[in-house]
Design a protein that fits this description.
The complex is a heterodimer.
Chain A (H helix, E strand, L loop, with lengths): L8 H13 L4 E6 L3 H10 L3 H12 L10 H4 L30 E12 L9 E15 L2 E13 L5 E13 L6
Antiparallel strand pairs in A: 1-3, 2-5, 3-4, 4-5
Helix pairs in contact in A: 2-3
Chain B lengths: L12 E3 L3 H10 L10 H6 L9 H16 L4 E9 L9 E11 L2 E9 L5 E10 L3
Antiparallel strand pairs in B: 1-3, 2-5, 3-4, 4-5
The chains are: A alpha+beta, B alpha+beta.
Organism (chain B): Streptomyces antimycoticus
GO molecular function (chain B): (3R)-hydroxyacyl-[acyl-carrier-protein] dehydratase activity
Protein name (chain B): Acyl dehydratase
């Protein structure tokens, strides 16, 4: 059976750009997270117990491990552009791959996170990230593109800390698809 | 806890995310997508209020699983698919069923349900129980 053709020029362009990018890994420096970074993340989750435990470990001079999904949940480790360089929906180019200048909107389809080793405060973390798939689909809400993005977070010795596969759903913003 | 049997239903947990939590989670996760903190913009995209972040759903799936698994349990993996949108203030329910047990490693089929019982998020969580 033949797959339905892409009727949205914007989505066709997203697909074309994504296919060019597939397999092109890009490295990011995530910096050196601190106990404060971890605690602020926990605070946003109303996890006062984590904060008390982390600060007690810090006071004892013991290593402080990040909350489980700290790396996976952070949208971007780049400094980020000034506001006038964001898309109208608030996303930066890095967070909205293959969509620059196009009348599209995006939502998150989901994630798969594998935890290998927790990052520890004061240890530098790097990430390597790539678009790994791009698929055109038709659903109840109309047509859309599913972009698969993989990010691997690494410790200074190159060993993996966390691996994240995320699905970004890109929809045409002009056709009223919901 | 002692290892549960496959098929065990976890006690459901009801909760809601406030708009303040959505804002703080966006800030701390460096997520400037306006649907999460700008209700007027969210409305322009067809949402009734600010939208719960995908990764906040992931946190809810895994944190409730860890609480159920008891002290010392460790998260191994979590995967989820967003089926429907949830918004600030919406009553949600975490529900899960044990799908497999291998030694201390327990896999849950977990769901976040809307007030009418329909699925908002579906996923799996793997935890290792404390020895």
């Amino acid at each position: 059976m033949t797959a339905p053709a892409v009727s949205s020029p914007a989505l066709e362009e997203v697909l074309a750009r994504a296919r060019e990018l597939i397999g092109q890994w890009r490295d990011e420096d995530c910096g050196t997270p601190t106990v404060k970074d971890f605690c602020r993340y926990a605070a946003a989750l109303n996890d006062g117990e984590y904060i008390r435990r982390a600060r007690a470990l810090e006071a004892d001079g013991r290593p402080v491990e990040a909350p489980d999904l700290f790396l996976a949940a952070t949208m971007s480790w780049e400094d980020g552009p000034p506001e006038d360089e964001l898309r109208p929906d608030g996303l930066a180019q890095r967070e909205s791959p293959c969509t620059e200048g196009l009348a599209v909107r995006q939502v998150h389809g989901g994630q798969s996170v594998r935890l290998v080793r927790p990052p520890v405060a004061g240890t530098r973390i790097t990430a390597t990230r790539a678009v790994v798939s791009a698929r055109h689909k038709h659903g109840r809400s109309g047509e859309f593109v599913l972009l698969g993005v993989r990010t691997r977070f690494l410790s200074p010795d190159g060993s993996e800390l966390t691996s994240v596969d995320e699905t970004i759903v890109v929809l045409d913003a002009t056709g009223g698809d919901r | 806890m002692t290892a549960p049997a496959a098929g065990t239903e976890c006690p459901p947990r009801r909760y809601a995310h406030t708009s303040v939590q959505l804002f703080r989670f966006s800030a701390v996760s460096w997520n400037a997508h306006r649907i999460h903190y700008d209700a007027a913009f969210a409305a322009s995209e067809g949402f009734p209020d600010t939208v719960v972040q995908s990764t906040l759903h992931g946190e809810t799936l895994s944190r409730n699983a860890l609480e159920w698994a008891g002290p010392g349990a460790r998260l191994e993996s979590v995967a989820w698919r967003n089926v429907a949108t949830a918004v600030a203030g919406e009553q949600l329910t975490w529900a899960a069923t044990v799908s497999s047990v291998e030694g201390a490693r327990v896999r849950l089929d977990a769901r976040i349900l809307k007030a009418d019982g329909s699925e908002c998020v579906t996923g799996t969580v793997e935890v290792t129980l404390a020895g």
